[in-house]
UniProtKB/TrEMBL annotation:
Modification 4-aspartylphosphate, positions: 61
Transmembrane stretches, start-end: none
Organism: Shewanella pealeana (strain ATCC 700345 / ANG-SQ1)
SMART domains (alphabetical): PP2C_SIG, REC
Listed name of the protein: Response regulator receiver modulated serine phosphatase
Lineage of source species: Bacteria, Pseudomonadati, Pseudomonadota, Gammaproteobacteria, Alteromonadales
UniProt keyword Cytoplasm present: no
Pfam families, A to Z: Response_reg, SpoIIE
CDD domains: REC_OmpR
Keywords: Hydrolase, Phosphoprotein
Domain of life assignment: Bacteria
Amino acid sequence: MPLTLKLISQHKIIVVEDCYSERCLLLTLLESMGFTAQGFSNAQEAIELLQREHVDMVITDWMMPKISGIELCKTIKSMPCSPYTILLTGNSQNAHLIEGIESGADDFIAKPFHSGVLKVRILAGLRIIAMQQKLESHNQALNNMLLKEQGYLNNLKHDLSLAAQLQRALLPKNSDLSQGWRVTTEFKPAQDLAGDLFQCFNIDKQHIGFYLLDVSGHGTAASMLSFTLAHHLSSSQQIWQSLDLAQITNKLNREFDDPEQCGRFATLLIGIADTNSGEVEIINAGHPSPIIVGPQGARFVDDNHLGSQLPIGINKQHSYHSQHFTLEKEEQLLLYSDGIYECRNSKFGSFGLAKLLKNISDARELPAEKLLHYLSYSTELWQEKQAQDDISLMLISTTTHLAHCDS
């Protein structure tokens, strides 16, 4: 694109030439072409100006006393925003020209020069200057955008951190329950926010309620949906007082909402335990079967995994039914998310339920906190310390088991 006269007049050019007549000739030619030009008889004066003011282009002679054109070019190129430099030389030998370019000159013109050649060389230089200025402007705009984006990401990271703290606050602490029963937990989210949530609480003096839900997907969307479901399952909801597990689960399934319409669902293991008799009622909505940990080893509540029903949110008309079993003396009930057994090792593949069950059996005599830590750490090593999914563990211990451990 040709440079307009207005743009030409905006650029400042200085001429450094110790010969008065040649300096005057150059200044006259530049002014006749519409350029704003200023002349200097020596390099030192030019350097002093360059240190004070912005200059777009320098046209300098090679042979000058004290500071030569070559030395001036080297000084100019050491400056932060160096101007475009054209070196005038009476020697057109290749070695001579190479030395001039290597010193920092952007172009050269051999003496004697034609005024037309001088003009096109200057215009070419100004086009390069214009492109550099445009690039700098674009870079500045990009930097501003990046700074703005970084500020946004910092705010988002802060918000996610607060949300993660809120999510962890909803999880049960290791604590005592009715009739001396106890709940112990371990939680390791794959990201800041998790799709897993679980809880265990007293319903009344005889019964405790518990659940572990896992919303499909990861990140913010999954965690927000898990927050919503957790609200419906809150211990403050009066529906728990009915002790009707099917009613609680069916109501949750009907109220499940997938606002993004992206096929989200939730697996759920929900139950009520009678702390006097040890009888436990559970509903398994697409979740892994809980594990009973006893003195003789570990076993699945549902050995054939046939008790699992549709996950929450698949079919709002589905009617859930429960199954019953009893926690015998010295037995514990372990609830867990699929993240602990579906994790993969790059060499050995999936961790698997069989390995999980064996690890539990091998470590069954450990205290509750140490058992859960052992299971979590084993999985962490298996997936080479690269978290692939949320890991949630909740161990419910009976009074008799606690008494046995204390002894």
